[in-house]
Amino acid sequence: TVFNDRHFSCENCDGCVSGGFDAATSQIVLCQNNIRQQSHMNRVVTHELIHAFDHCRAHVDWFKNVKHLACSEIRAANLSGDCTLMNEIARFKFGLKGHHQTCVRDRAIRSILAVRKVSKETAEKAVDEVFDACFNDLEPFGRIPHSKADARRAYRDFQNRDRYTANL
């Protein structure tokens, strides 16, 4: 069970960090001084909830295994809306072929560098080694939610998940 007053914290943060997941307390931190719009907060909450999901599902070793961290960062960048076309245009970064994957890779590397004292080469190597498997892991959504309609569809699928297996 999630309790807003227990599992979410709004704090002032250093630098350009927008949020974080504290595995020790199972708490999502939202950086109130760095989040200016509701849509940005929605992406940050989704991003951090994916980390929380991974923490519960995969028993991620956040501090000792950089590949675990890389995988969760790839999944969070892929599924949270960080790399939507509109966000990338706002960042003056856009391309056609494979741009979503490039964005996910770059954001995962940036996130690792923001939270761990590792070299850029170490972060890039970890991301590259786990990228394909982690990019294709779409749980708990089952799809990359590119829009609100996609997110609603994924939620409906989640609600109906037992219907599909009940008759097997």
Automatic annotation (TrEMBL):
E.C. number: 3.4.24.-
Family of the protein in this entry: Belongs to the peptidase M76 family.
EC class: hydrolase
Keyword Aminoacyl-tRNA synthetase: no
GO MF: metal ion binding; metalloendopeptidase activity
Gene from which this protein is expressed: Atp23
Record's keyword terms, sorted: Hydrolase, Metal-binding, Metalloprotease, Protease
UniProt lineage: Eukaryota, Metazoa, Chordata, Craniata, Vertebrata
Entry-linked Pfam families: Peptidase_M76
Single GO cellular component term: mitochondrion
Protein name per its UniProtKB record: Mitochondrial inner membrane protease ATP23
Signal peptide: none
Entry coiled-coil feature ranges: none
Any Gene Ontology biological process: mitochondrial proton-transporting ATP synthase complex assembly
